[in-house]
């Protein structure tokens, strides 16, 4: 499995079954990187728009994927819809220039949600 993220809280995340791929990119970049993996036969294990934080509110996104033996059509649809939803939200209101404290709060939310999802998946 691979964990695609731009959340610095995952720098020290250790799990022998999960490779952390940390990017210092935007939320949208994480969605597009995940899309590229999906097109190379990876399956999405955690919803790209999980949680109650709107895509145009937070700067962090983390998505768990795993290699698949063929193209997973559900993952293709899921990531395509996530990208379109992000674009729609971003068009309505751009992400504020948050303070470091607020960014850290979003980082904790992202980390906790994914860590809990990983515990249920593995």
Description:
With 122 residues, the chain is an alpha+beta fold. Helix content is 44%, strand content 14%. A four-stranded mixed sheet has the order 2-1-4-3, with helices on both faces. The termini are close together. It has one domain.
The secondary-structure class comes to alpha+beta
Helix residue percentage: 40-55%
Order of helices and strands, N to C?
A: EEHEEHH
Gyration radius (Cα, Å) is: 14 Å
Compact summary:
Helix content is 44%, strand content 14%. The chain is built from three helices and four strands; from the N terminus they run ββαββαα.
Set down the secondary structure blueprint.
Blueprint: E1 2-5, E2 19-22, H1 27-38, E3 42-44, E4 62-67, H2 73-92, H3 100-121
Parallel strand pairs: 1-2
Antiparallel strand pairs: 1-4, 3-4
Helix pairs in contact: 1-2
Structural key phrases:
122 residues; alpha+beta; four-stranded mixed beta sheet; globular
């Amino acid at each position: 499995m691979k964990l695609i993220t731009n959340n610095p809280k995952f720098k020290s995340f250790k799990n022998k079954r999960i490779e952390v791929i940390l990017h210092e990119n935007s939320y949208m970049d994480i969605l597009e990187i995940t899309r590229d993996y999906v097109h190379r036969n990876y399956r999405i294990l955690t919803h790209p728009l999980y949680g109650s934080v709107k895509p145009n509110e937070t700067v962090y996104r983390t998505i768990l994927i795993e290699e698949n033996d063929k193209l997973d059509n559900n993952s293709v649809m899921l990531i395509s819809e996530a990208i379109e939803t992000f674009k729609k939200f971003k068009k309505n209101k751009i992400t504020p220039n948050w303070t470091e404290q607020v960014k850290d709060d979003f980082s904790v939310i992202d980390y906790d949600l994914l860590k809990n999802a990983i515990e249920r998946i593995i």
